[in-house]
Amino acid sequence: MNKKRTSKDEYYLSIAKEVALRSTCFRRSIGAIIIRDDQIISTGYVGAPRKTKDSLEHGFCLRDKLNIPHGQRYELCRSVHAEQNAIINAARAGVSLLGGDMYIYGSVHKDKTPINAFPCFICKKMIINAGLNRVICSTKDGKMKIFKITDWIEDWQKGDIIDDKSQYG
């Protein structure tokens, strides 16, 4: 009997999917985990800052109420992105992210339809500065896309962030 073993990338992405279930955003459920040396060192999901009311507690999404399209005006969102929370949680625990990988899973909050869970520009900048090596994201077709952070840096050295081909929203 030759059972196919789940790859490490599939394994860690499935854990990020579980983390996403904690999301408190009306629009998206997104979870992120950071792995270094084959260990989970941090997790994060979309949610309001600690000790503040999230959108579920308020009963509405502020950006929906203001008719703001996806991928725009993040400063008017109550939530902290999953990627940001994973980085922040590692910092709170005093854990270095250098050389680690981030796994991000995302879906539509209401019906759990998978989405391209690519980081926004703000999160990409944080990921670059955190010293991560790769970001592995779920895609709307149920697969995954792997980004090398050095590729983002090279692309932005040649062009600019607005020329980025794989962006959220």
List the keywords.
5-stranded mixed β-sheet, 169 residues, alpha+beta
Can you give a write-up of this model?
This protein is of the alpha+beta class. It is built from six helices and five strands, in the order αββαααβαββα. The protein has a five-stranded mixed β-sheet with strand order 2-1-3-4-5. Strand 3 (101-108), helix 5 and strand 4 form a beta-alpha-beta unit.
Radius of gyration: 16 Å
Helix content: 25-40%
Oligomer: single chain
* Integer average pLDDT: 91
How far do the termini sit from each other?
Answer: 44 Å
Present the secondary structure layout:
Blueprint: H1 8-20, E1 28-36, E2 39-45, H2 55-58, H3 62-65, H4 82-92, E3 101-108, H5 121-130, E4 134-138, E5 144-148, H6 149-158
Parallel strand pairs: 3-4
Antiparallel strand pairs: 1-2, 1-3, 4-5
